Every structure is written in C-alpha cells, then in structure tokens.
Amino acid sequence: MAIPDLIGCSPKFRAVLDEIDMVAPVDSAVLLHGETGTGKEVVAQAIHAASTRRQRQFVAINCAAIPASLLESELFGHERGAFTGAVTQREGRFQAADRSTLFLDEIGDLPLELQPKLLRVLQERQVEPLGGNRSIPVDVRVIAATNRDLWGMVQERTFRADLYYRLNVFPITLPPLREREGDIPPLVIHFVRKFAERQGKVIDYIPDEVMEALKSHHWPGNIRELQNFIERAVVLTTGAALRPRLAELRMQTTSAEVRTMADAERAHITATLRETNWVVGGRGGAAARLGLPRTTLIAMMQRLGLSRDPAVSGARQPAQHGAAGHAANWPVSRKSPEKQEGNYSPAPLEPWTTANLEGHLVNVAAAGYGSSPAGTGGNQSRCAGSRGAGETNPGRMVSPSSFREERIYVR
After folding, report:
1. Does 388 map to a domain?
2. Same domain, yes or no, for 166 and 86?
3. Both 17 and 48 in a single domain?
4. Based on the domain organization, do 123 and 191 belong to the same domain?
5. Segments forming the whole domain that contains residue 182
6. In a domain, 272, yes or no
7. Looking at the predicted structure, is the pLDDT value of residue 359 above 50?
8. Which of 19-33, 62-76, 283-297, 353-367 has the highest mean pLDDT?
9. 407 vs 307, residue with greater confidence
10. Model pLDDT for residues 114-143, shown as the tens digit of each residue
11. pTM for this one?
C-alpha cells in the first residue's frame, strides 16, 4: 500500500503500516491512540483508501470542536421543528457516511449523555434523527481516535465501558515522532518539497547542521509541529538552501518538560556526547564532563540504547569534508543523490557499537596501540609489563582500564 502522506521506515512506523494493511480490507471498528499531532486522521484516511469503501467520500467529525448541544444533531441529524431554529430537515454525519467511513476524532470528548445513543447506532446499525420517530438503517464503518486514556476514563466512570469495548475492536497506537528514529529526514524533505512548490520557490538542499538540529529536537507537537516549522522555514528561505530559525528549537528544548528520569538521562548524555563529537574517554571526553568513570558511562549508554552506529540509533554517519571544506548536505531535488556542486555525500565509516568496545581496546592494546611515532623514541609499547622496544610481557593480560586517558570514539 502506497499512501503519499504516510512517510517513514522506522520499525515502529512499519508496524503501524502492517496493522493498516491487516485491518483495511475488513469492516471492523478501529480505535487510534496517539499523542496530538501524530497523524491519526491521516492514518484513518489511509485505512479508508485501502478498504472496499474507498469509492465513497470519507466523512470526519471532531467531537471536541462542536458544542454538546449541537453535536447530537451533527451526528444523527434532525427533523424539521425538532428545536428552535430547525426550519428544515437535515441529515447527520452517519447518514452522510452511509456505505463509507466515519472518522470520530477526539472521541474521548464525547459527552456522556450522547454515548448511549452512539452505542445503539453502532450495535443496531440504525440512526434515529433528533425529533423523529423513525429509524433509518445505515451501513457505516467507524474509526475513532483519541489522545486520552480511554480505559482510565472508564475506570473514572467518565466514559462508558460498553462503548469502549465496541470501539476498541482493533486498536492501533501511533508512536510519537521522538520514537520514530530515522523518520525525520524523509519527513523534512517531503515537507520542504511540498511547501516550496506551493510557494513557488526552488530549494535544492538542506544544510547538514540544519538537519542535525531537526533530528535532535524533541518535537512535543510531533508531525504537526514539524510540518508547521518547515512551512515557516520555507517562507523565511530566500536562496537554494533551507534556512530556518534554529534558535526557536533551542528555546523550546530548554523549556520542554522531560517525561521520565530515563528521558532526562538520555537527553543530557546525548547532548554531552554531541558536544564532544561522541568522544567518551580522555580528559575532554564526555565521561570527564559528566563526572563519571568511562566504563560507567559506556554501561549507561548501553542501557539507554545510545550509539553512533546508524543501524542502532538511526543517526546518520558524520559528514565528511571535501577539498573545499563543504560538509555533506541533504538534497531536496528529485535528482540522483550523487555529488552536486558544493554538496558531498558522506563516505561510509566502519560502524562501532558500545557492545564490542572493551574487546576492541584489548585487541588494539595487544597490537601496540599508543606506541611512539618513528624518530620519537622508538616503538615503546604502552602495554602493561612493557620490557623494551616493541616487547611485552607474554604472561600478562592487558586491561582496557590502562587506557583510560585515550580518546575513544563511538561511531
């Protein structure tokens, strides 16, 4: 299934795409969970587009945007004279979505007094307009969405349990953007192309430092916040390179609330690693700045899943520099991503992970790591038990802790 607005290749997002493929061909009710701005309506439209009802119009209603006194009429319709101002008969959204899909956004804000009537419509597949005495059969597939904890609301008796079970036939949880590692670059490129074309501008590439700033931002507003930020950046851009106001992201980052202690540790360690170019050990390394032993920091990185390896963390490899000193940029045009004028693609680097770091140091130490260059005192090994030029004690194991002052890079 190819939906233009469903962009991403992270494992969590691919799982959502697989669930869409499974539930789209059937008529079961779907309940979408996710934070605000995660694209719940886009996913609902994707389900409709892949279903057998795609020939009919997709109908959506936001339960939080309509006053409770008018919501019943919007959903179920009303007869003439049903209330003051009802001068004509009007069909509701359920009748408009007959043989199609009805998307109930913010279902958690549905008033408690309307929930029994919605439950009856879902069970009996019949709608009774406000002020009428007849039931109208409807064939509607319902997709509901919420950013609230509906089960918690059921426990608090602010949401009916029977309606919850009726809606929660096939639940899909949409991951927040901060958990979709590797999905920010394709989303940014998509939005830049979209808004540049809409505004009649030509933006050829995104500078590497801009992309790194976008990837490191927390994005509490998720895809909606990213989309609005890129649109604003396109408005501000006058040349071929995207030039957003990165200071806005830094201000939001400093004022953003951290959800858990693990999030606070991860954010602080990641920021320190970026400042040291992912150097862990040594006097200027991240461990020294954090006031931690090097081995303790490595263990914390393993526990938090922090790694420079793109296969683990989703981070792009560091940009290489060409003869002119230009860093690699992110091309926006649909041309081949080969070298363009002023843009250099990063050369592949040998991936490192923290899992094999200690063993790697032992092997390097045994091979004479840290020996003096030629002409500066010979090949004197720094291994424990060194006896002379190039000689080591064959009976001693070299410990990585003896290299605590070396600069260790995690790539």
Report:
1. no
2. yes
3. yes
4. no
5. 177-257+325-347
6. no
7. yes
8. 19-33
9. 307
10. 999 999 999 999 998 887 778 899 999 999
11. 0.62
Tokens read off for 22: 């499974």
164 and 189 both lie in a single domain: no
Asked whether residue 163 falls in the same domain as residue 185, the answer is no
Domain for residue 354, yes or no? no
pLDDT (0 to 100) of residue 262: 76
Domain contains 75: yes
Domain CATH for 334: 1.10.8.60
pLDDT tens-digit series, residues 180-215: 989 999 999 999 999 999 999 999 989 999 999 999
